[in-house]
Amino acid sequence: MAAATQIETVTITVNDLELTVPKGELIVESVKRLGFEIPIFCYHPRMKPVGMCRMCIVEVGFKQPDGSVRKMPKPQAACTLPASEGMVVYTDTEAVHRDRKGVLEFLLVNHPLDCPICDRGGECPLQNNTLFYGPSTSRYVEIKRHLPKAYPLSKYVTLDLERCIQCGRCVRFTEEISGDSQLAFRFRGANMQPSTFGLMEFESKFSGNVIEICPVGALTSSKYRFRARPWDLQTRPAICTNCSNGCNVWMDYRVDKVVRINGRTNEAINEEWTCDRGKFGHDFYNSPDRLNVPLVRRGTALVETNWSEAYSDCIRAFTSSTNTAGLGGNANSNEDLFAWKKLFNEGFKSNELDYNWTKVAPIADPTHAKPSIASIEDAPSILVFGSSLADELPIVFLRVRKAWFKNGAKVIVAHDQATDADSFAELVLNYQPGTEATLAQALADAKAGKSVEAAAKLTGVPAEKIAAAAAHLTSSTAIITSHELLNRPGAHDALGALKGLGELRNYALNANDQGAAEIGIGTGTKRSAQILADARDGKLDALWLLGVDPFEVCEDHDLVQAALENVAFLVVQAHTKNGAFPYASVVLPMTAPAEADGTYTNADRHIQRFGAVLPAKGEAKPAWKAFSEISLRLKPGRPWFNADEVGRALGAEVAAFANHSFNQLPTEGLPLV
Amino acid sequence: MAERKLILEHAHDPAYRTLDGYLAKGGYEALKKALKMERQAIIDEVKTSGLRGRGGAGFPTWIKWNGIPKEKSDKLHYVLCNADEGEPGTFKDKQIMEQTPYLLIEGMTIAGLATQGDRGYIYIRGEFIDAARSLRNAIDQAYAKGYLGKNILGSGRDFDLFIHLGAGSYECGEESALMSSLMGERGMPRLKFPHAPLPTISGLWDSPTLINNVETYACAPFIIKNGGEWYSTLGASTKNSRGTKIFSVSGHVNNPGNFEIEFGTSLKELLEMAGGVKGGKLKACVPGGSSVPIINAEAVDRAIIGYEEMADVKSMVGSGGCMFLNEHTCIVTFIWRTALFYANESCGKCTPCREGTRWMLQILDRIRQGKGQQGDIELLEEVCSQIDGRSFCGLGDAAAWPVQGAIRVFREEFEYFIANGRSIVTSEPSLVMAP
Amino acid sequence: MSLGIYKGIVKPITSGLGITYRRLKHKKVTVSYPEEMREQFPRTRWRHFLTRYESGLERCIGCSLCAGACPARCINVVAAENTDEARYSPGERYAVRYEINMIRCIFCGYCQDACPTGAIVLRKNFELADYHREDFIYTKDRLLEEYPGQSDEPYTSNRKEWAEARADEKRR
């Protein structure tokens, strides 16, 4: 690569081994290249170094022209030391070990050492470093610092001030990464403590991350509190299905119950962060409302039955008429959706499937390759149009903020309300509700040098602001919109105007909306609203709800209720009792995302595998399996036996998915072709 | 040698605090001269003069001045004055600011000229209300007469000067913490990045920044007016210390106050200027503010004031806060009080200083309560060695040195206190010990 | 004939009884178990107990270190938080469930070593046989001593007490 040759390198010596590293690289990172370890607390690779904890101190010298080494009189903190030519670093001398011991002794004098009851115990950097580098006994005989224990900072985060080692990671996270600056240090010296201003509630959409980056048990999860110790847990990689970003997470479970979700590093998707919605949104797995057995309506009551009877009912209803439809919605795998479409198309001779609940359908050609989420970082300017990113796609919001914070990207926010991104935006275009299309067209006009006075009057955004915003837009501008925009009138016109202004990224909302579009769900003649309206008017003979609660995704509750009441036959296939459950003719229990193998397509068309973490509840089956079994009854043949086979069939049918089946995918996923 | 007054020559003349009085005594001649000089020529004069930082570290001043980029980028150049004089025992800057404010203003203006400074900030310790008022008054007059602001004295060069009052933290006297505080952040030392000891490239708001002590700036007019050559003749008897230094003499002396002396004067002479020891024989001296190691009477006799010379008696010139202690002083109590100060003033950023200062205080507390144990002295020494050089900024070192020094010089006092549970000094304690 | 009887029967019997007679003056080594029991070795490790503090509070804080140390993975601890209204142990945390699978347990005593509060101890009660597999899962209420110091009382060799204790245990 051309860029590689431009990197200026220096030669340093680490423990008598020569090493060439980029100039200015922090020594704490350089020594990792040789496999040496420097213990750290405050340093975090994704945040600016501060050199607070002094744990990483090393001996440093410089090579003299005569070949000797002149050591610096004081030890240096490796986390704040950039590599320079001729630097000689020692990480393993007696003096270094003595200094580390000293720092750990200092850290432990006021640490309560209540490791047995601390949630961090067993996976605690302070424990690890003390074990490897610390003193075995304490010489401290005075009274330790006593502070409130288990202070609830928010409903998710519990603060234990006694355990805090004042490394400032949490404070820096809220300042540098999430940008809400909710945490700060109070008091000074030995009394210094992190907290919110005035002990207010810690209101952040990313508060869960501070639990993970805390190197001690000072910030712990209120939900995970005392639920398990690390050695009680089993951990499997998983994908978050709470939004379309598809964050990589670790799912920790104990005896088949999910107790905790932690971020898993995937530079292309979420780096290592999680949002609170994803991190703490796993309650439904253990919900008492989970569906375990198939139910069929006999008379007025839903009675438990076996799969065979439930299938028969479904087949009877859906094959007796072709006036049938299906609605999906939240978090179904590609396999489920493909099998569903296949069953409807071939078995039920219907294509009235929809997955999208926005008022207008997304115009973007589903096969149009979207620039990756990671590439937002490189954009010189970013236009967030009509989307409250921090609420809809929180991790994309972090990328946008990183682009601004790290690379100085100019961020322009256009929304009819105040959004979280306003805090760092270069320009905020606060338009009148409903004038999205006008504003988008005005931006295009301003770019083309036309007058935007009329549009300014209509949208309420000053003409100078529109002109200033347009001046920032280039062909490499990342224009980010989301499904929120699709619920606004004139969304099509807005998107059309935006398309010419830069790289348009219209991100989907739910976990596999993008996958559904790729597979071809929603290519029928009717959209979701029309299907519901038909059902309400009694024009629909049978409706299949796949893993969706229409009351949740559709704003028009009256329409939903009337539709569900009036449809002749309703199949509710779900993992948990939902709003549609009382109206169901047949209820098919389905596995939740973590309970079956599957692949998910995220907003930037990255396809990732999600291997089963937990066993299925009761008789619940993956949806594709149920579809496959129904198909088998309609037309005998060879069913699919596992998710990989479904994926291969999908690949054969939809070109984008070729070679993207469950077993073919690497752990970190692949972009769709 | 007697006092050699440069800065404090007219300090007691109230007229000197007005612009007219200052001009009448030859004020602003240096600035007028400097306006005709090349920028580099000013820096060269400072280099010739051998002026070293008066704030405590004794860093050669010209290196800082010379380190500011010669070519201006789009960033402003800042000239900062560290007037956060918080070192216990030091009160020289207070007098300069209150009584000779124009020397500081003129000095900063000259520094601004030499480094293409656009803005100057004087960060004054929050308690120095009088000093701030005096400076405010002086700056207003200087603006009115065209000595500050746009187009200084018709030269076409601009320099603005602002006053910022601190909020009461000793730590903000550390230059990077001062900048944090000035920028509205928590007063904690900042990382000097890219790794450099000086903020000359990237300091305040990531811009080139010059920062010096009040006294250092106040020296500049004399250097420019009379030439660096002349200035370097002052204190020529020392190895590498030139000019005059104001010492704030306090403690058990008959006539405490600020004394401006040439380098090369002996500490004993300084004591005599201050009227000799009060209330008994001399026991110890802290020659340069509370953070420098304490020395005993024997060392006072042979100590010569000079940056290198003081090292011979294992102490430092520091900021010039010279405290003499008589024989009725309990060194353990004295050191306990010093440790209390540092434990209170540690900002909490780095582990060694945050936890170490508190621990030291607790050990000394225990010793003073008569609960000292065998091994406490060794533990204190060990704790000090774990702080010294390991902390983020100089405060940790400053907290460790007095304890290390006191143990080195007065070890038997500590041993006696631990063994007997009471002080070796039986007479009434003559230092008032505020808690 | 009579000589034959003597030689063949009486003599062996009397000499045999002689051994018996000589043995009579030796100290008796058998005990009539279960009516009485042999003294156990001082460091014998059998049945687990969860001990209490003098105040009656449970020592166990539900830290699960015993479960982590257990080589047979036979301990299951579920912790919960103490409140001021319902306080089981000092501090924040207590064990809401504590189960040991006695069939799996190898009586290594690692749990006792790992315990930071001295809550789990192995005592000399060795009669652990039972009739149902389920009964070998010792739950917290079976493991927890009823009053402080109960587990330190010598394991009784008194048949009556033993029987009572046994019946008691079965009832539970």
What does it look like?
The complex is a heterotrimer of chains A (673), B (435) and C (172). Chain A is of the alpha/beta class. Chain A folds into four domains: 2-92, Ubiquitin-like (UB roll) (Roll), CATH 3.10.20; 103-221, Alpha-Beta Plaits; 295-358 and 515-671, Rossmann fold, CATH 3.40.50; 373-508, Dimethylsulfoxide Reductase, domain 2 (3-Layer(aba) Sandwich). Chain A is built from 22 helices and 29 strands. Chain B has 435 residues and is of the alpha/beta class. Chain B has three domains: 14-233, Rossmann fold, CATH 3.40.50; 244-326, Ubiquitin-like (UB roll) (Roll), CATH 3.10.20.600; 331-420, Up-down Bundle (de novo design (two linked rop proteins)), CATH 1.20.1440.230. Chain B is built from 17 helices and nine strands. Chain B has helices at residues 19-24, 29-36, 39-49, 61-67, 92-99, 101-114, 129-144, 175-182, 214-226, 228-233, 267-273, 297-302, 331-345, 351-368, 376-387, 394-409, 411-420, and strands at 78-83, 119-124, 160-165, 209-213, 244-251, 257-262, 282-286, 295-296, 321-326. Chain B is globular. The two termini of chain B are 39 Å apart. The model of chain B has no long low-confidence stretch (mean pLDDT 88). Chain C is built from five helices and five strands; from the N terminus they run H-E-H-E-E-H-E-E-H-H. In chain C, strands 2-3-5 form a three-stranded antiparallel β-sheet. Chain C is elongated and about 90 Å long. The interface between A and B is large, with 43 and 35 residues.
Number of strands of chain A: 29
Largest interface: A-B, 43 and 35 residues
Distance between the termini of chain B: 39 Å
The CATH architecture of the largest domain in chain A can be given as 3-Layer(aba) Sandwich
Overall tally of structural domains of chain B: 3
Low-confidence stretches of chain B: none
Regarding CATH, which class of the largest domain in chain A?
Alpha Beta
Largest sheet of chain A: 7 strands, mixed
What fraction of the residues of chain B are assigned to beta strands by DSSP?
A: 5-15%
